[in-house]
Amino acid sequence: MRADHRPGLRLLIERLPSCMPSTHEAIAMTHNVLFLCTGNSARSVLAEATLRAWAGNRFKVFSAGSQPTGTVNPFALAQLQAEGISTAGLRSKSWDEFTTADAPRMDLVVTVCDAAAAETCPVVFGDFLRIHWGLPDPAAAEGSDADRAEAFRQAHRTIQARLMAFLALPAAAWEDRGQLKTALDKIGFVDAEDADSE
Q1: Which residues are tagged catalytic?
Q2: Residues 47-104 pLDDT 10s
Q3: Among 58, 63, 162, 198, which is least packed by CB within 10 angstroms?
Q4: Which distant-in-sequence residues (6+ apart) come within 8 Å of 179 by Cβ?
């Protein structure tokens, strides 16, 4: 049985807008989103490429790492390609690229490290909303290539479920930073099982 703090995806999507300002819909504008991890080779790259493919002009999407490996994991690239998601321009890079004066100004920074596995998450500071959507690192999976590919598939399914809920938020959600953070924190509990249950 699913825990109370992990509602089904459809129910979560239905509930999120109801806690947002409903008097009017904000004028649509582009927001900058950075997915941040340690190595920037797997989870953050999967999230970057997927949201970029799905978001149209609603979001400009980036990813980075505090200790980048310098190479995107080939299983991450294979998983994206299997889903028909472009891998063009993806690279493992340092978050230092986003601290320069001419770097894009972030509206939202999402860490995706797995605190449950005692993985060290980057500590970020700045005038942006910070949230945590932790999930196990598929790059740490052991076994055959098929086992490792499955770990990436499962991680990507969870990321996809969370991004579906994220994209379901109305434009007006961005008007109240506190309520937006509450909604985004809830999305961090969504996983692949929630999407499968709908």
Answers
A1: 37, 113, 121
A2: 999 999 999 889 999 999 988 999 999 999 999 999 999 999 999 999 889 888 888 9
A3: 198
A4: 19, 20, 21, 173
- The residues that bridge with 10 in the sheet, in sequence order, are none
Q: How far does Cα 191 stand from its chain's mean position?
A: 12
Q: What pLDDT digit, counting tens, does each position of 128-173 carry?
A: 899 999 999 999 999 999 999 999 999 999 999 999 999 999 888 8
Is this model's pTM higher than 0.85 or not?
no
Burial of 31 (0-12, 13-18, 19+ CB in 10 A): middle
Residue ranges and CATH numbers for the domains of the chain are 29-196 (3.40.50.2300)
CA atoms 45, 123, 70, 31: torsion sign: positive
β-bridge pairing 59-65 and 129-132: unpaired
Residue type, 151: A
CA–CA gap between residue 11 and residue 31 (Å, rounded):
25
Task: Give the three-state DSSP class for 98.
Answer: helix
Averaged pLDDT for residues 29-38 = 91
Integer Cα distance of 124 and 102 in angstroms: 18
Sheet holding 129-132, edge to edge: 59-65, 31-37, 108-111, 129-132
